[in-house]
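Per your request, structure below.
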């Protein structure tokens, strides 16, 4: 485990929470979209995915099928549980997190990680699941890359595939899938793969290398990019939640700098120490899937108790954030961890079946 990256997972999930909280505190801020920059946490997750998949599979043989089964055992159970739970809540008429309609095809496509249009948006029943659609697509592509034995060629192949996809996206095509999977944001997975190759190739920095200063400079540049993107969008009159080629150029570059800086620190013997954030990094996937529901629920409660204004927004945060943290920890400890462990034990038994009993010799 790379501790700095695990802590970064917690921070990235908090950033996404902050952006979604912006929907509730926006009316009392100088600008309603002031917290839009938190969406860059998704870009951090995509770069991390590329890095982790490349590093974790390097140096060992893993079949594409085995890789996909392992990733599915990690991603699918909790996502299905939360998605089905939201659908059941919606069927009672409570309409959690903006689910105005539940149709069988909505549920099936959500569970299969297939993009579809719902209420004018391309998102599954659990709205944050749009990122999981990309993650699963990336796993499919990376499974094919596992057939390339040399790490350098595997990294080049991944870069070529995702570059080709975004170039194809420039061609006119009315297909929803075509438009979805050729968005420029997919290049961030390739950026993570490139970081993974550099990490394995370069190893620990030499003793005289100024690790702290280099990492600090990279983090400062990342912060300037994120802030510059926010204020630049205001100046240009565009949405501050960046999209198109601007998103990977600004937020994707910032994500690469942050991940690279934390890797450099750990390679230089400087690991961040926070039991809280490490635990939250472990539970970040569950937190990510459940936080919107808790925000929406907290807003419903606050609406009945406090008049519109800063007090209501503060109450929403005070209820939703600790509730999301607690729910994420509970999901991780009592659902995610045991289910993944059970599934992987089954996968390991399939991959390495127990030996047949010795014949009885009389």
């Amino acid at each position: 485990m790379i501790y700095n990256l695990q802590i970064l997972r917690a921070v990235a999930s908090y950033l996404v929470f902050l952006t979604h909280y912006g929907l509730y505190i926006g009316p009392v801020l100088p600008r309603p979209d002031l917290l839009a920059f938190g969406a860059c946490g998704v870009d951090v997750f995509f770069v991390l995915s590329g890095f982790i998949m490349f590093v974790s599979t390097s140096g060992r043989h893993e079949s594409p099928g085995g890789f996909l089964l392992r990733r599915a055992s990690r991603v699918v159970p909790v996502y299905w549980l939360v998605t089905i739970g939201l659908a059941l809540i919606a069927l009672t008429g409570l309409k959690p997190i903006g689910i105005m309609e539940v149709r069988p095809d909505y549920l099936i496509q959500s569970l299969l990680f297939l993009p579809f249009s719902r209420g004018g948006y391309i998102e599954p029943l659990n709205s944050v699941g749009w990122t999981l659609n990309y993650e699963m697509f990336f796993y499919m592509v990376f499974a094919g890359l596992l057939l390339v034995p040399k790490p350098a060629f595997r990294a080049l192949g991944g870069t070529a595939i995702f570059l080709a996809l975004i170039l194809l996206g420039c061609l006119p095509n009315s297909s929803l899938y075509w438009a979805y999977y050729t968005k420029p944001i997919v290049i961030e997975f390739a950026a993570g793969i490139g970081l993974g190759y550099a990490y394995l190739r370069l190893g620990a920095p030499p003793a005289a290398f100024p690790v702290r200063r280099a990492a600090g400079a990279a983090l400062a540049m990342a912060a300037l990019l994120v802030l510059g993107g926010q204020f630049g969008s205001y100046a240009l009159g565009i949405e501050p939640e960046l999209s198109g080629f601007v998103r990977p150029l600004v937020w994707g570059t910032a994500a690469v700098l942050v991940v690279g800086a934390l890797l450099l620190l750990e390679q230089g013997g400087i690991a961040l120490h926070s039991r809280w954030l490490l635990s939250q990094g472990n539970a970040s996937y569950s937190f990510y899937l459940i936080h919107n529901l808790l925000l929406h629920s907290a807003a419903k409660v606050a609406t009945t108790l406090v008049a519109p204004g800063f007090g209501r927004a503060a109450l929403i945060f005070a209820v939703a954030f600790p509730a999301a943290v607690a729910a994420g920890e509970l999901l991780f400890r009592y659902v995610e961890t045991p289910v993944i462990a059970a599934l992987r034990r089954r996968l390991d038994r399939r991959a390495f079946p127990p030996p047949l009993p010795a014949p009885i010799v009389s």
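Residues 352-362 have pLDDT under 50 and may be disordered.

Regards,
D.
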